[in-house]
C-alpha cells in the first residue's frame, strides 16, 4: 500500500494538516486488501466529530479506548459521496476512496481539492490499523458512518474566480437598458404557473437562484433575485434579437436598477463546455435583504470602476453605463420590479435553447474559469 507521510508527523502537534493524504492506488489496494483480512482488537473509533468544514477540507476527531492504542500506526478513512454510499471496504475495480495517514494527534485536517468538492454530501468512517513487520496490516472494526456536507466557496475562493474573470472580460461597451426574456404567458394578467410574479401580475418578484454555474458559489439555491441581461450586439449597440428564454422581452432603463444607491457584487464565473464564458453579478439596493445577504459572502465591486458593469456620472449629472465585451453577463437584481417601469415587446429573433443557463453544469476541465479547489 502506498503510504505517504503527513506534512507534520511530530506527536507534539495537536493538529495535523494532511496535505499529502492520497487515495490508495488500485494495485496497492488489492495487495493491501489481501493483507488485512483479519480484524484485530485495536480500538474502534467512536463518537466521530467533524468540524472546521470548508469547501475542500474538514477536521476529524474521535474517541477510542486506551487498550491497544499504543499499537496504532495508521488511520484508514473511508470517504464517499453520499449518493454513492457503499460498504466500507477497500475497492478492487472501482476508484478507491480510502485515505491513509500515519497515526497523528487528533483532530487532524483532511484536505484535498482533487477528492473533495464544495457543497457536497459525504459519508465518512474510520478504522485504526497497525502495520506489521511483513508489511501487512491488522485493523480494527469500522466505526459508525457519519454524514456531513462541505461548504460553499469562501470570499477568498471567489476572489480567485474574480481575477480569472477580469483577465478575459475585454473592453467595455456602452448600453442603456437591462432586459429580461420570457414566454408570453409570463407577462399576461393570468399567469398562475409563474411563481416569480405577484397575484396582480404587475410586478416581477425575486425567485431563488438555480444551481447553474460553479458548484461552490454561495448564491446558488440561496440568493433571491430577478435575472436580467445587458449585453449588446457589437455592430448595433442594442440588445440581441435572439434569446434562450422566450420571445417576449421586458426592457427597463438601466438607471432604474443601477444607480448610486445600488451595490454591485461578483457572484460567479463559469462556462458550459463551450467557448462562451458567463459572469454572474448581483445588483442590490443598499441595505436591502439581498444586500445584507451579499455582504461578507461575495466580493464587492466599485460601481464606477470594475471590469464587468459600470455606472458613472457625467458632467451634467446623468448616468452612463458600460458592460464587458467578451463575457456574457447575468445580472441578478434582488428586489421586485414593477412592469410599469418598462416595456414588453416581442423580439424578432429565435429562441436559442442551447444557450440557456438553467441549472447548467460548469465545465470542470476548463483552465480559464476553474480554480484550485473542488469544482
TrEMBL record:
GO cellular component entries: cytoplasm
Domain called Fibronectin type-III: residue spans: 44-153
Pfam families in the record: fn3 (PF00041), PHYHIP_C (PF19281)
Domain of life, source organism: Eukaryota
PROSITE patterns associated with the record: FN3
Alphabetical list of Gene3D superfamilies matching this protein: Immunoglobulins
CDD domains named among the record's database cross-references: FN3
Family: Belongs to the PHYHIP family.
Function: May play a role in the development of the central system.
Name of the featured protein: Phytanoyl-CoA hydroxylase-interacting protein-like isoform X1
Amino acid at each position: 500500500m502506498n503510504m505517504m507521510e503527513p506534512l507534520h508527523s511530530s506527536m507534539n502537534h495537536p493538529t495535523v494538516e494532511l496535505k499529502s493524504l492520497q487515495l490508495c492506488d488500485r494495485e496497492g489496494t488489492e495487495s493491501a486488501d489481501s493483507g488485512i483480512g483479519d480484524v484485530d482488537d485495536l480500538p474502534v473509533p467512536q463518537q466521530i466529530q467533524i468540524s472546521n468544514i470548508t469547501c475542500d477540507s474538514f477536521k476529524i476527531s474521535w474517541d477510542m479506548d486506551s487498550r491497544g492504542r499504543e499499537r496504532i500506526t495508521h488511520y484508514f478513512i473511508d470517504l464517499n459521496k453520499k449518493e454513492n454510499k457503499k460498504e466500507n471496504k477497500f475497492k478492487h475495480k472501482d476508484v478507491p476512496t480510502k485515505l491513509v495517514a500515519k497515526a497523528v494527534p487528533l483532530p487532524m485536517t483532511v484536505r484535498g481539492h482533487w477528492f473533495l468538492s464544495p457543497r457536497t454530501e459525504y459519508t465518512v468512517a474510520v478504522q485504526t490499523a497497525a502495520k506489521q513487520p511483513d508489511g501487512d496490516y491488522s485493523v480494527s472494526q469500522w466505526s459508525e458512518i457519519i454524514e456531513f456536507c462541505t461548504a460553499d466557496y469562501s470570499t477568498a475562493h471567489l476572489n480567485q474566480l474574480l481575477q480569472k474573470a477580469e483577465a478575459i472580460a475585454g473592453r467595455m461597451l456602452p448600453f442603456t437598458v437591462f432586459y429580461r426574456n420570457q414566454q408570453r404567458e409570463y407577462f399576461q394578467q393570468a399567469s398562475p404557473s409563474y411563481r416569480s410574479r405577484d397575484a396582480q401580475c404587475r410586478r416581477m418578484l425575486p425567485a431563488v437562484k438555480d444551481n447553474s454555474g460553479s458548484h461552490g458559489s454561495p448564491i446558488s439555491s440561496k440568493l433571491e433575485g430577478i435575472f436580467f441581461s445587458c449585453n449588446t450586439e457589437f455592430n448595433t449597440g442594442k440588445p440581441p434579437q435572439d434569446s434562450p428564454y422566450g420571445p417576449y422581452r421586458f426592457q427597463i432603463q438601466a438607471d432604474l436598477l443601477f444607480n448610486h444607491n445600488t451595490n454591485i457584487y461578483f457572484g460567479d464565473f463559469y462556462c458550459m463546455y463551450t467557448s462562451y464564458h458567463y459572469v454572474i453579478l448581483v445588483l442590490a439596493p443598499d441595505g436591502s435583504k439581498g444586500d445584507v445577504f451579499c455582504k461578507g459572502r461575495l466580493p464587492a465591486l466599485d460601481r464606477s470602476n470594475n471590469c464587468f458593469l459600470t455606472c458613472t456620472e457625467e458632467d451634467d449629472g446623468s448616468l452612463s453605463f458600460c458592460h464587458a465585451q467578451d463575457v456574457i453577463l447575468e445580472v441578478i437584481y434582488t428586489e421586485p420590479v414593477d412592469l410599469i417601469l418598462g416595456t414588453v415587446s416581442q423580439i424578432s429573433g429565435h429562441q436559442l435553447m442551447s444557450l440557456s443557463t438553467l441549472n447548467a453544469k460548469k465545465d470542470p476541465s476548463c483552465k480559464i474559469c476553474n480554480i484550485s479547489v473542488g469544482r
